[in-house]
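Tutorial, part two.
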Amino acid sequence: MNYRTATWLAWSLWALSVTLTALSLLLLALIRSHPGTHIFDWWLGNSLVVIDATVGAVVASRRPENPVGWLLCLSGVATSTSTFASQYAIYALLAEPNSLPAGEAMAWIAAWTLPIMNGVQVFYLLLFPTGRLPSRRWRWLAWLTVAYIVVGVLTAAFSPGAHLGALGPIRNPLGIEGLTQFYKAVLYTMSPALFLAAAFSLVVRLRRAVGVERQQLKWLAYAAGGLAISSILLIITIALDTPRWYEWVANAIVVAVTPGVPIAIGIAILRYRLYDID
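Running the prediction step on this input gives:
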């Protein structure tokens, strides 16, 4: 892919992510004008995905040979699609019933996007900073992540609780009773395990790396450490019946640290002021 094509494609994906995020916020404003209507739980954190999309577009247009930039672009598209579908379904089915077409279809789309979002994030951590696996021995993790995405999407697409209850009373129109527990088991066990394995791959890289690559990894290590802790706190709120104040704190921490990962990746890959990290 030449640089002109890469630039056009990268910024097209960025424009799609930003447009969907902007439409999601517009729908949120309309939903808030109807008191008592359920508010999408993850709207704020998901809206920050424009940072992923922006960093991804910059990296992909300047380093098109490195898949990490493209994975950041895909993360932006997947997350913004999930947010838009969720807000659309809430508005069309709860705030103003029958005001927009295909509300149930959007609820179904929102139901199965989370495994894709998680899988893409695992992949760009696993491939950072070179765009390649640490070694052939890590192929198992790449294939396991693909399996997680496939199984997660299939079970989520037919689990009754749309988006793990983030859409309030809205149910998955294609839900089959009994699949929700299996989907939660896959999500709550596989997702943390994959992120931990990807984090360990970064530790292995760091131990072997020298020079510029070592500095690149240091940038991500600081950001990834905060993300790992915040992710565990957030998973606890989903898996257990936690107090409302704990949910607010966990979400606030996630919102605060999440942008640090794509920003650190962008700085590291573009090699901007790498040696200032220490």
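The chain has a mean pLDDT of 88. In part three we will examine how such features are distributed along the chain.
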